[in-house]
Amino acid sequence: MQAYGAGKAGGAFDPVTFLQQPQTILRIVSWLFSIVIFGCIANEGYINRPNEVEEYCIFNRNQNACNYGVFMGSMAFLCCVAFLALDVYFPQISSVKDRKKAVLADIGISFWSFMWFVGFCFLANQWQVSKQEDNPLREGGDAARAAITFSFFSIFTWVGQSFLAFQRYKLGADSALFSHEYTDPSQDAAGAPYTSFGGDDLESPGGGGGQTNSDGPFDGSGGYQRQDY
Fold this sequence. Notes:
The chain is mainly alpha-helical and 229 residues long. It contains 7 helices and 2 strands. α2 (22-44) packs antiparallel against α6. The radius of gyration is 34 Å and the shape is elongated. It starts with 14 loop residues before the first helix and ends in a 41-residue tail after the last helix. Residues 174-192 and 194-214 have low confidence and may be disordered.
């Protein structure tokens, strides 16, 4: 029984199982793609003509194209790291409401798919209209094509993350195991009220509330019988 894709809080963390989860694999792949995109543009995305000193963006000398790629790559990197940390901590969240918020936040990152689609179209268009005279030595061409290619692949990895998050949201919480006010039992054991054994059948020291005999005073007829020798 699980709540939003994870069992009860307090279980031991298994790194092998964690790394085998589909959302973990997609986050790591997206994280690697963001590093490639950011690194390609930051390291080889700025060139100049032989007679120039100032460097310009390799994508049609459009600084906005390089800035967009660097921004998207760096933000996607941080986002992947943050959600990987949340995935590690997620099974330890005892409240179903908090788990629901985490899953909804995971669904909310679906906008990255659209952002990468815009980035792919933007970079591909600017690379297509780039002039040969702006880069006569053909510098940085492989890096530019790599940034465009991995921007395209990032669309699908982020769509996959959103799809898996939506599946976890649909899974919801098993009402037989969890309630909206569920907390870790180890945290509430000390504060549980003490219940006396036997309930209300035991007579209290004050005499009130105990069980009474309605047959009159005890005459010994039903108890021990004296024997004469």
